[in-house]
Amino acid sequence: IVTGVQTCALPICVVILHKNIVDMSNLGFKESVVCTLKGVTDFDSCSSRSEYWYYQLFRVICAGIVFFLTLFIGPLLPEWLGKGVFIIIILFALYIVLADIPLSVRRLHDTGKSGWWYLVACIPYIGWIALLYLVCQPSNPDSEYRENGDVIVE
Fold this sequence. Notes:
Blueprint: E1 5-7, E2 14-16, E3 21-23, H1 29-38, H2 49-73, H3 79-110, H4 127-135, E4 151-153
Parallel strand pairs: 3-4
Antiparallel strand pairs: 1-2, 2-3
């Protein structure tokens, strides 16, 4: 019997207090993206592999849309409107890229690694490969970064 349910930043990210289970298995594409974008300042908790990869898919889709808009639609706009749209696209892209940093840190926490391992991506040529290897690792149920012994279900 579950005695109480508490929600985190979103109602879809449910924490069941009685069993200390963070159920990430029900997060689909939309929920993962919303959780990531709303948790842009959260460097302390954990993120599942599915949340991480759904957000990466979202980034690729956004990049394709921005490419399409700038290549095909941009030249058709008047100059004054084109500059405004360009500024909005740049700000949105910046937010999308910056949201990836805390998500990667939370993913590293889920594997039991410190968030400082994100800096391995700064190593020229091979850093991104090392980071890719780290975020692909399975969840570590004994991670010291979990709150109250929570277990993330994938």
